[in-house]
TrEMBL record:
<keyword id="KW-0067">ATP-binding</keyword>
<keyword id="KW-0547">Nucleotide-binding</keyword>
<keyword id="KW-0347">Helicase</keyword>
<keyword id="KW-0378">Hydrolase</keyword>
<dbReference type="Pfam" id="PF13625">
    <property type="entry name" value="Helicase_C_3"/>
</dbReference>
<dbReference type="GO" id="GO:0004386">
    <property type="term" value="F:helicase activity"/>
</dbReference>
<feature type="domain" description="Helicase XPB/Ssl2 N-terminal">
    <location>
        <begin position="308"/>
        <end position="430"/>
    </location>
</feature>
<dbReference type="InterPro" id="IPR032830">
    <property type="entry name" value="XPB/Ssl2_N"/>
</dbReference>
<protein>
    <submittedName>
        <fullName>Helicase conserved C-terminal domain-containing protein</fullName>
    </submittedName>
</protein>
Length: 570
């Protein structure tokens, strides 16, 4: 039992529930911690392992103040850092560190003086380059989210995208070296979320994909800023100068790598230029203002809302196509190149994909008619018509009587082809009159047939076509805060009126468990006191048992008569 735990236990018992909840959250205390009383809490918070976990989380100013307090050079006056360290149970109210904290801090170097200077404005050419890079980042992230919407990415145990998925993304034109940063930016902006070890789109993704580039960028930088660690973020919502980021958490061994990743994400978002200077649109954000993309978008090429449709089933956008139009066009066409002038190509598979997600022949032709500067070429009109006619030749439904999935078609050649298709063996298809049936679920069968390029459609029991939704979006929600209320209530319930007696009981229990030698001060009936040296052997029924070293006899002392007890080091 450490003697320095008692003052902390008393401070904890006098603290408000709100202060305790803040402390336990900051120290990452489990809500189901097996603490019986505030003495247990104090012992756990002063445990070397607990202290080792909190020190890397300290900001540069907090680490500097704590090191100064541990070395005896801290100023006597109050400071925000001193108050913060007291609330973290690292300093006593008088500003001195608890002994275990002092021991832990003595093993660490004092943080170097902070090197932070007001950022210099970026030169015009560098600002233009930063704006172009931000535009490229927004476009690449849109590509990534469109792919994730169609097929969520597999994640490794650590939450990163697997190497195989990265290769697939790189083949799709997304810079391989930026994939991890793009995924983190999407997570911070709540545009992607992991579920069941897969990374998919959220309920905010669709609106973001269809927003203008300025709004897209604003959402990304707002998410980036909100996710910054507290060593970087300022109370007004902004951030400290980027030159100070590498020193923000001086006692965190992983911080150099983490700060480098943060700076790279800031660079990708156009918040810092390549030489470290600050573009005009980043300065208000740094000071805590809301994102304003006006200055950035003024340096970008204007978006267009028309395309050229050509006889070879391709389309050319003479500039960056407006995002809402681009997203819809890419449901019925494959983008072949991405630049200021993008190109797209129509294929039977791309048109079929649009039909699967809810387009019709009429809606496709109407959309292209409005979008095209050159009308719809006859080959494209024919492709859309032919694909729409074939779509739905294979109908997938659930048999109401047997509960099995049924596959039907007016083209028996298709039925015969599916029955012998080796790529569909996993479905275990069985002939049933002029149809096929399987125990595999309807949706799984439908998407297997679609992947195998059969003109399948989902229908309900009345034969009404259903729109297939392969990967439902992930509904995001704010993570519930850890509730320390029950733990605090349990600690309060064991809070007795006599702290001295409670502390003495704990000291005696610890001494008995450790078979320690105690120096015991006992109150005598005549009001005097007597000091005994006992080898503690047992405690129970309100009595302490031990061997009196001086008299070499066993003694049993009423705990109520013991005025003080301390362990004698052996």
């Amino acid at each position: 039992m450490s003697t320095h735990a008692r003052p902390l236990a008393e401070w904890l018992s006098e603290a408000s529930d709100a202060d305790l909840a803040t402390l336990f959250a900051a120290r990452r205390v489990r809500p189901d911690a097996g603490w019986q009383d505030f003495f247990d809490a104090a012992e756990a918070l002063l445990d070397p392992a607990s202290i080792a976990r909190i020190l890397p989380m300290l900001t540069h100013s907090e680490a500097t103040a704590l090191h100064a307090a541990a070395s005896g050079t801290a100023p006597a006056k109050e400071s925000s850092e001193r108050e913060a360290l007291t609330r973290l149970a690292l300093l006593r109210p008088d500003g001195t560190p608890f002994p275990p904290v002092q021991t832990a801090v003595a093993e660490r170097d004092a943080p170097e003086p902070l090197r932070a200077a007001e950022p210099e404005p970026a030169h015009e050419a560098d600002a233009a380059h930063a704006a172009e890079r931000a535009f490229t980042t927004v476009a690449a992230l849109a590509d990534l989210l469109l792919l994730a919407r169609e097929r969520p990415f597999a994640l490794l145990t650590g939450g990163t995208v697997s190497a195989g998925e990265k290769r697939m993304l790189a083949e799709a034109g997304i810079p391989a070296e930026s994939i991890d940063a793009l995924v983190t930016i999407a997570l911070d902006a709540d545009l992607a979320a992991p579920i069941d070890r897969r990374l998919g789109a959220t309920d905010h993704t669709e609106a973001w994909l269809r927003s203008p580039v300025g709004d897209r960028w604003s959402v990304l930088v707002a998410g980036f800023r909100d996710a910054l660690p507290r060593g970087i973020r300022m109370e007004n919502g902004g951030w400290v100068a980027t030159t100070a980021w590498p020193q923000a958490h001086p006692w965190d061994a992983a911080w150099p790598e983490r700060s480098a990743a943060l700076l790279e994400r800031a660079r990708l978002l156009g918040l810092i230029a390549d030489d470290g200077r600050e573009p005009a649109w980043a300065a208000p954000l740094r000071r805590g203002a809301e994102a304003d993309a006006t200055a950035l978008t003024s340096l970008l090429p204007a978006e267009v809302d028309r395309i050229f449709l050509q006889n070879d089933l391709s389309a050319i956008a003479p500039g960056p196509l407006a995002p809402a139009l681009d997203v819809r066009l890419r449901t019925i066409a494959t983008r072949e190149s991405a630049a200021q002038a993008s190109s797209y190509r129509f294929t039977p598979e791309s048109i079929a994909h649009g039909l699967v997600v809810g387009e019709t022949e009429e809606s496709i032709l109407e959309f292209l008619e409005d979008l095209s500067l050159t009308g719809i070429p006859q080959p494209l009109r024919y492709l859309v018509s032919q694909t729409a006619q074939r779509h739905g030749l294979v109908r997938v439904s659930t048999d109401a009587e047997t509960g099995r999935t049924r596959i039907e078609s007016t083209d028996q050649n298709l039925i015969e082809a599916m029955a012998v298709d080796q790529g569909l063996r996993s479905l275990a298809l069985a002939k049933h009159v002029e149809s096929l049936s399987t125990r595999v679920g309807r949706d799984t069968v439908y998407w297997a047939l679609t992947d195998a390029r059969y003109p399948a459609t989902l229908v309900d029991h009345d034969g009404t076509p259903l729109t297939g939704e392969r990967n439902p979006i992930t509904t995001t929600s704010v993570p519930a805060a850890v509730d320390h209320g029950p733990l605090i209530a349990a600690l309060r319930s064991h809070q007795g009126p006599d702290a001295d007696a409670a502390w003495l009981d704990r000291e005696l229990e610890a001494a008995v468990r450790a078979k320690a030698v105690l120096r015991v001060t006992v109150g005598m009936p005549d009001g005097s006191t007597r000091e005994l040296i006992l080898e503690a052997t047992g405690l129970g029924g309100g009595r302490l048992r031990g061997r009196d070293r001086a008299a070499d006899v066993e003694r049993t002392l009423p705990v109520s008569s013991i005025r003080a007890a301390s362990v004698i080091p052996q």
